[in-house]
Amino acid sequence: MKRVLVIQHEPFEGPGTLREALAGRELRLLRTFAGDEVPKSLDEDGLVVLGGGMGVYDRDRLPHLNDEIAFCAAATASAKPILGICLGSQLLAAALGAAVGKAPRKEIGWYGVTVLREGRPDRLFDVLPRRFSAFHWHGDAFTLPEGAVPLAATALTPLQAFRAGRRAWGIQFHLETDEQVLLAMLAGGSADLREAGADAGRIRARARDELPRLRERALAVFSRWADLLDAP
Fold first, then answer.
1. Which burial class, exposed, middle or buried, applies to 69 when counting CB atoms under 10 A from its CB (0-12, 13-18, 19+)?
2. Of 10, 107, 176, 210, which residue is the catalytic one?
3. pTM, two decimal places
4. Among the options 10, 13, 174, 210, which is catalytic?
5. pLDDT tens-digit readout, 159-206
6. 176 has catalytic annotation
7. What is the CATH number of the domain that holds 90?
C-alpha cells in the first residue's frame, strides 16, 4: 500500500476531500499544532502540506515552519509527488526560492478561478474547466518559483497555482474543502472574516450549490495526483 504524509497545521483544517481521493492509500497525519516533529526526509511515497493561519514570515515565532521549508525542498529533490495547499503552497514556493508575503487584501469566500494558458495541458489542471468557482481563505501571496509553470489565477491573486518540475504542485485555493472543513474554518475564523469583509452566512448559503461542484473537481484533480504515487 502506498503511503502519503499529510502535514496539518490547524485542528480545523483537515484533508477534506483528499481522504476520499486517496482511498486505498495509507495517510499519516503529522500535526504541527500538536507538536509533531517535522522529519528531514520523506520516507512516504508522497507529501501533502495543508493550510493554516500562520505565514512563511512567522518562522521566528514558529520554528517548525523553517523545518517544513527545508523538508519541502528535500521532498522536491526526491521527485516524489508533492501537493501544497494554501499555506502548503506558500511553504513549497519558499522552499523553491520564491518570495512569499502578505497580499494587499485577504481573499475569503467563493471566487472564480481561471486556468491559465500554461495550465491547460497540465496533468492535474487539464481536467478542470477554464473558469470555475472555488473556496478561498488566504491573506498571503507568492511569486513564481524559478523554472515553475503558472497554472491558475483569480482577479485578486494573479498566481493561484504552479507546478514545479513534473510532480510538485502548489495550489493557493482550497480545492479540498468539504462541508466539515468549511464549517470548521468559518467557526474558527471570525477575525479573518471581519478583516476581509466576508459574510459567513452568505458563504454557507452559497456552499449548498458550490460544494458538490467543488467535490467533483477536487476528486478529478486529486485522483490524477494519486495516480502518480503508483507511477515509476
1. buried
2. 176
3. 0.96
4. 174
5. 999 999 999 999 999 999 999 999 999 998 999 999 999 999 999 999
6. yes
7. 3.40.50.880
